[in-house]
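Ligand-bound model needed. FE2/S2 (inorganic) cluster.
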Amino acid sequence: MSENVKLRVKANGSIRVTGTVDFVDADGNILETRTDFSLCRCGLSKEKPFCDSSHKGGAFIAGEYEPKKD
Ligand code: FES
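Prediction:
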């Protein structure tokens, strides 16, 4: 059974991942498995690729997200 993983882009913040994800290296080895976490998209986190809430200082203003149209 396959479960959908949801990515929610938060305004001026992280990408919230809901679900379980395997982090895999270039050789296909699972490095880590995480459930329900946030990815940094501001570049300020000291725990990249994960969000450490550094974006909350107001230094990050994201552009609008527009889904790709076919
Ligand atoms: S988005 Fe939260 S620290 Fe970058």
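Residues 13-14, 40-42, 44-45, 51-55 surround FE2/S2 (inorganic) cluster (CB under 6 Å).
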